[in-house]
Amino acid sequence: MKCWLKKVFLLTAVLTAFLVPRLVVYAEDYVSDAAKALQQTTVYVVPGTAGTDIDTASKLQGMLRSDDNIVLVMLPAEAETGTDIYSVVKSLSEKLGNQRTIGLAIGNDVIGYGPLLPSGVAADQMHRADSVSNDPVTALGTFARNMHTWLAAHPQPTPTPQPTPVPTPQPTLTPAQAAQRAKVAWGVVLGIITVIIILFAFRAKSIMEQNKKAMERNKRLAVLKPTEILLNDLQERVSDIRDSRIRNELNSACLVGQGLLENLQQTETPQGYTEEKFPKSVVNMDKLVRALLGHESGKHPLPPETLKQVKDLLLNFDEYFTKLQEGNEEAVELMTSVIESSNAMIDTLGFLPKDK
User: Fold this and answer.
1) How far is residue 20 from each of residues 15, 23, 48, 82, 203, measured CA to CA in Å?
2) Among 159, 50, 51, 175, which Cα is nearest to 102's?
3) CB-based contacts of 78, cutoff 8 Å, min separation 6
4) Neighbours of 29 (CB within 10 A)
5) What is the chain's mean pLDDT, rounded?
6) Residue range 110-150, pLDDT digits in tens
7) Which helix (H) or strand (E) holds 71?
8) Count of CB atoms within 10 A of residue 352's CB?
9) Is 350 left (phi over 0), alpha (psi -120 to 50) or beta?
10) Are 105 and 75 in contact (CB under 8 A)?
11) d(CA 146, CA 178)
12) How many CA atoms lie within 13 A of 68 on its CB side?
């Protein structure tokens, strides 16, 4: 039986070598190795990764706590061959049962991913860490500290561990069963060859379709770019608000908005209503924030009733972005109508500062 199987697999390897160009599968290999290692530890550093040394793993381990649900991973730049860092971290998360918060560095690129956290939180904390770090090792350590701070302010439920599958015992094959399996294996070899030929016949068509999708996605990203810039500016303006309650709620709303924006940027296809309305919602939020800042500065005071309305609307933007992300058109249209009516009144009465 073993001899037959060896011959079958040897023939498969030889035929594949002649008919199929060798494909680099660095990313999947690295993801599999990392997922396996993270079953026993919370830090995985591929030996020889640029910018690391023999002490890097222990240094990163020292940034984590014993009860952390956070893992830190460092892969060499070649792990991104034929893919991108978001696809790699998503694949790694799936292999970990989507139960861990991941800080990943591939070469000089870093990303935070937390499927159990509110949308955009892990990515935002890594972005903040990367902006004050000179190298991926420092960025991962700072990300761990940022997550500790955020989790202390926003406690999360303990994730439910996934049960370890129990392998099924394999029965010993009889000679007749072995012969039948060998025949099946030959059929599999022929099937693989047929599939390979079909795949390569349609390769050119697939490449053209991918290029078309890439062009369409680039157009969508260009349309969303002004919203990304405005949202970043808006986060800075929110930090200047004196009313602590409004400031804290808007910081949370900005995190949700940042997560929603990242989802729109990462999806391959347009998101319809959500993608259409999100840029306008950020503009409306910015107008209300600038109106409140103008009032707090004393340069553009608002009447008491108008001030109350502005604050009430700002306190609901967290829910507004959530409804928009869910595609709840009825709720979004109602809230948008109230917000735009308020903004129109502010514009008409001249309460909105002209300087940004």
Assistant:
1) 8, 8, 30, 17, 12
2) 159
3) 26
4) 11
5) 84
6) 999 999 999 999 999 999 999 999 999 999 999 999 999 99
7) strand 70-75
8) 16
9) left
10) yes
11) 57
12) 26
Contact at 8 Å (CB) between 228 and 261? yes
Quote the CA–CA distance of 287 and 295 in Å, as a whole number.
Answer: 12
Give the tens place of pLDDT for each residue, 197-225: 888 778 877 787 777 777 887 888 888 89
Q: What angle do CA 286, 254, 297 make, to 5 degrees?
A: 45
In sequence order, the 6+-apart residues with CB closer than 8 A to the CB of 131 are: none
| CA atoms of 264 and 180, how far apart (whole Å) | 51
pLDDT the model gives residue 86:
94
Q: What is the residue type of 235?
A: Q
Neighbouring C-alpha atoms within 13 Å toward the C-beta of 184: 7
Alpha helical stretches, state H, 132-174: 136-153
φ/ψ of 103, rounded to 5, equals: -110, 115
Burial class from Cβ neighbours inside 10 Å (0-12, 13-18, 19+) for residue 204 reads exposed
CATH architecture of the domain with range 26-153? Roll (3.10)
Single pTM value for the model: 0.42
Q: Order of strands, edge to edge, in the sheet holding 101-106?
A: 43-45, 70-75, 101-106, 109-113
